[in-house]
TrEMBL record, chain A:
Domain ABC transmembrane type-2: 138-374
InterPro entries: ABC-2_transporter_component, ABC2_TM, ABC2_TM_bact-type
The keyword Ribonucleoprotein appears for this protein: no
Annotated compartments: Cell membrane
Keywords associated with the record: Cell membrane, Membrane, Transmembrane, Transmembrane helix, Transport
Protein name per Swiss-Prot or TrEMBL: ABC transporter permease
Coiled-coil zones: none
Species the sequence originates in: Aurantiacibacter xanthus
Main location group: membrane
Pfam families xref list: ABC2_membrane_3
From TrEMBL, chain B:
Keyword tRNA-binding tagged: no
Secretion signal span: none
Source taxon at top rank: Bacteria
Classification via Pfam families: ABC_tran
InterPro entries: AAA+_ATPase, ABC_transporter-like_ATP-bd, ABC_transporter-like_CS, P-loop_NTPase
UniProt key word Nucleotide-binding: yes
ABC transporter domain residues: 6-237, 323-552
Organism of provenance: Aurantiacibacter xanthus
GO molecular function annotation: ATP binding; ATP hydrolysis activity
Protein name from the UniProt record: ABC transporter ATP-binding protein
UniProt keyword terms in alphabetical order: ATP-binding, Nucleotide-binding
Amino acid sequence: MSAGQIDPRRLRAMVVKEGVQILRDPSTILIALALPVLLLFLFGYAINLDNARTHIGLAVQDDSAAAQSLALAYQHSPYFAVTTARTVAPLRARMIAGEIRGIVVIPQDFGSGAARGHRPPIQIIADGSQPNAANFTTAYARGVAQTWAAQEAEAAGLRAPLPTDMSLRFWYNPSLASRNFLVPGAIAIVMTMIGTLLTSLVIAREWERGTMEAMMATPMRMSEFLISKIVPYFLLALASMAMCTLLATLVFGVPLRGSLPALLLLTVAYLMPALGQGLFISAATKNQFVASQIALLSGFLPTFLLSGFLFEIASMPKWIQAITYIVPARYFIPALQTVFLAGDIWAVILPAVACLLGFGAIFFLLCFRSTRRSLDK
Amino acid sequence: MGDAVAIATGVVKRFAGLAAPALDGVSMTICTGGVTGLVGPDGAGKTTLIRILAGLMAADEGDIAVLGQAPGEELADLGYMPQRFGLYEDLSVEQNLTLYADMRELPDDEREATFARLLNFTDLARFRDRMAGNLSGGMKQKLGLACALVKRPRLLLLDEPGVGVDPISRRELWAMVQELTADAHYGGMGVLWSTAYLDEAEKCDRVYLLNEGKLLFEGDPAELTGSVADRVVRLTGFAQRRRRLLTEMLDREGVIDGTIQGRSVRLLLDREDRLAGDSGFQLAPATPRFEDGFIERLGGGPKGTSRLAEAYREVPADSGKAIVARGLTKTFGDFTAASDVSFEVPYGTIFGLLGPNGAGKSTTFKMLCGLLTPSHGECAVAGHDLRTSGGKARAALGYMAQKFSLYGDLSVAQNLDFFAGAYGLTRGGARDAIARVTEVFELGDVLKVNAGTLPLGFKQRLALAAAVMHEPPVLFLDEPTSGVDPVTRREFWTHINGLVEKGVAVLVTTHFMEEAEYCDQITLIYRSQQIASGTPDDLKQQAADMAALDDPTMEDTFIAMIEASDAQREAGEAAA
């Protein structure tokens, strides 16, 4: 690191140069502006994690009217496609084959027990190998039974003596449209692409083309050099963010319940570690190919897999859960989903912003330390 | 020369993993008002020294003062042009200049005048808005120089500005830098020009000759050249084949060095009267060159007999033409890369394809190797038509390029194994061939070393060894010795001359003029056309007549012919 003042004119010249290079490079524009559209459409339309019409099995072991009525309630539920059997055994085979996600068992004395004033509980079995789906399945299966019980009680003119009086509602995303939480996640992926993947190439490219050497022989400060790399990509990422937000709200109908300043704050905070990581990789490897591979492995994949975007962190093994704490997107994606789906809940946003800025500071420190004005290894 | 702008004393630089230091106690002084030459073959340490002066690397030992400060302190007054020019290829000529002007803090009010002067000076004014990546090599180099000059530096460091560009561009650049040192506007500027071309060394005001990190000579280049005056002679009028005479002469005591120059043989002797009283040739004094002095300081050239050639099979003399090209044309879209190129190469001769970069010689070369299919015309190697039996043709040729032909991360033995396999030698044949070339080229001690870390001289030997393991009757050499030291180059051509005497046909592409002197026949390719063909002496004679030159060198000849071709074309365009 060379000490000394940052010269605004030199800095401006470097930023302009970097900007011209971005505008002249079709692949950069493609990644910054075309790829987000592609990703949003992919997650907005093509991939659907909704559990509407989940296939379940229904083992009706009782012939009473009550049991038949409950079975009918399941069959009429808009959430389930039901396969009925007398016993659990055939259904278990289908669950192992992956054809159904859960089994609801209506026990033998379901009707007669009710007459005696003590209704035996129904049993709900879910396929725990897919925790997300299992959660939804049990919740909805319970919901159906509760609704049915409430209606029964109303018809009988008295309150049902249920062991627990529980009602289940999904807030913020009541219809549980996966699009609503996938699209903010996809925006995080886009930010990572621009912040980390694109910037991982920029310093390495100067080394490979020999321009680094020529620049280091001018009075340019290394701090000016690094800032000139950050500013254009920061602006590019913000432009991309604006585009993504417009697409998400106008085209996909994702609600934006929070405020724009909150969204901006969160985005700026996330770009710090994203840009810092990309630049650090670039400065440390000095090779575009290696840099892009490392950026993919250390930036893009964790954002995809370890951030809670596609896979629930709570259902990961403990040691992988520990790793997720050093993935910046882990803080960004839930906060982003909050801003989109719930609103400005500062108790969620501010800690996330603090974590992200902390990561950013670490990466920038590493970056400045690894960019020395020297060709010595 | 004037004041010292850079002084280095006892500089030592070591790199991890290399036993020998890259710089071993080098001292130099760069003064204003002239060009200081930093001369030496590739790998001598020139770039390392320049980078240390520019403050880009730290020396392990020694004292360095640049413009009175530690290196890297006075960067605003330093002009530095790295080997790859340091240009942004996706910025225009003007944007590159503007960027460097901003970096070097050129005041706004001087900018317009400075740009105009530099663009005029480099003849780039027409290309102001062109992307730097779309400039030719020569133009990039000039733009690189303009960027280094944008703030009137007090010290200008040029790292091999002549590398990879043709002799004309090289001469133009030299003239430009020469002009700068005389220009009052740039008064008080010191220039360091590094080069592997020894002919450039002769033109410098002061020279530092570097070899393997050690300083071999410093001072006025004329002093080194003068040290061999009267001992350089030219032999003409002999009856033998010139290659045989050269071999004989080099094996004699008292002959330090020898080369072929067209039909004559040029020798450096240890005593003026060494050949007095010999008969069978005429003896005339020849102009001493810087290279003669360099060779003597390196302990003289190799002896004349090639052990490779001695062990090589005799190629039957009556097997027709080795290489035939008839009307070879290659077009890429509406661009013609080579147009109607025709020549024949008999066995036992060397044929040279000469031309500036981008003239079409590589295209022609690739068609003859079967790497490109000609759009028109035909070509055959060792009697095999490249179109119908390319595989057989390729099996009959050995290919060597000085660059890129070895696997740097494989050991020497692994490289040899690989090439033996690639040329289809049987297991026993491969073993014998590897044993033979290992012995001939003295590779025994380095068999386990990675090829990439070998000194340049060894790489050169290894590349040739790999190309001749299958004893091909035809040898293709692509820029075989550019950048190597003169002793290694002599050694290389000793082998080639020996092989040619065994009947091998050699095709060589080069823009290194000394290599052209070894050829029996030359064709000069320029703008995809064959503009001249003949023996080196014929071409020199033609050029002498054309441009009224007295005893032109091969480089003079080359330049005269290209200029004549340009004049003819311009006249044609003006008439049309």
